[in-house]
Amino acid sequence: MTENLEESDEIVDDRFEILFVYDVEEGNPNGDPLNENRPRIDEETGENIVTDVRLKRTVRDYFMEKYSGETPNKVFVRPAEKEDGTLKTREELVKDEIAGENVDFKDENKDEVKEAIFDSFLDLRLFGATLAVQDMSIGQIGPVQIKMGRSLHKVDTRYVQQSVTLPSEGGKETGTFADRYDLPYSLIRFYGIVNENMAGETGLTYNDVYKLLDGLWNGTKSLITHSKIEHDPKMLLAVEYSEDSYHIGSLDKMLDIESDKEDESIRSFSQISLNLKDLKEALEENSGKIEKIHYKSKSSLDLPDKLEVKELEL
User: Fold this and answer.
1) 282 with 254: CB under 8 angstroms?
2) Nearest to 289 by CA among 82, 15, 61, 11
């Protein structure tokens, strides 16, 4: 346990459960390229789905902007161009950024190369690595595992068509149509675990966990594209446990919403009340196994008084 996550470079030896809630208005939180880039919907439940890959991309993009490629906070999983404009392969990334052209990538050097990779790349310390370089392959499960996100309600999918006027030859203007699919509103929750038993394999520190939480909150706020400009983080909890190899589990299923509106008619967070009753009861019942709760929230949280709670300075 550490007093302040951001001040500790110690290897993580406590388990964390992470619960992250954000919303989107008039946007597409995760388009499906195999389905006209429509928002992903569970056809059985009518809920909006956002992949863990999308959330990790949000975090990685934030890291790239904040740390500008500086060791030890580089991002490995990213598009990187060579001088001729083509993209670097993963092998070229490893050679260029940690090892140099003359390194001998053989199995007897694997431990040395793994250490150099995890020392350099923050995203790999968090999420693990699978890569092959020459005759050597490296596969490491990441300490941080995240489930696919789901909306807390059924959503309404909207088709939007817009007219676009473009200049053409002879100074004339020509018109065409642009179309897109979006969601008028979706309140999405994500659930993840930081596995202390894997932290030593990648060198994950408490400070790295703090950077992850920062990336979730501020990376989501920084999604400023046509389809994602109205993403807004609402609540972030990181439950730190004192008991080895223990966590409550499925905290995301302990959230519920209350609203006077039908699910598909909800258009803003102001029309929703977030119900934390089941979550609070579970945390209270397990208070003897919880070291601390780190949190950030746009509204007040009713958490058990007997727990140590620390607001994250993000």
Assistant:
1) yes
2) 15
Report the C-alpha gap between 89 and 231 in whole angstroms: 32
CA distance 198 to 192: 14
Phi (first) and psi of residue 93, to 5 degrees: -60, -45
CA separation (Å) from 149 to 50, 55, 72, 226, 258? 5, 9, 29, 21, 19
Cα dihedral across residues 307, 193, 144, 49: positive or negative: negative
Domain spans of the chain?
A: 5-311
Please write the tens of the pLDDT for every residue from 181-194. 999 999 999 999 99
* Cα–Cα distance for residue pair 74/124, rounded to 1 Å: 9
Q: Are strands 173-194 and 144-146 parallel, antiparallel or unpaired?
A: antiparallel
Task: Return the DSSP state at 71.
Answer: T
Q: Which residues contact 84 (CB under 8 A, 6 or more apart)?
A: none
Round to whole Å and give the CA distance between 46 and 288: 38
Residue 297 backbone dihedrals phi, psi, to 5 degrees: -150, 145
CA distance 164 to 174: 8
Q: Which residue has the tokens 């966590």?
A: 247
Return the SS3 of 198. helix
Read off the pLDDT of residues 217-270 as tens digits, 9 standing for 90 and up.
Answer: 999 999 988 778 889 999 999 999 999 999 999 999 999 999 999 999 999 999
The larger pLDDT score, comparing residue 41 to residue 169, is at: 41
Kind and range of the H or E run holding 215: helix 206-221
- What is the CA angle 16-21-24, rounded to 5? 150
Nearest to 263 by CA among 185, 154, 150, 157: 154
Core vs surface per residue 275-311: b (16+ CB within 10 A) or e: ebeebbebbeebeeebbbbbbbbeeebebbeebeeee
Cis bond before residue 72 (omega within 30° of 0): yes
Q: Is the pTM of this model over 0.90?
A: yes
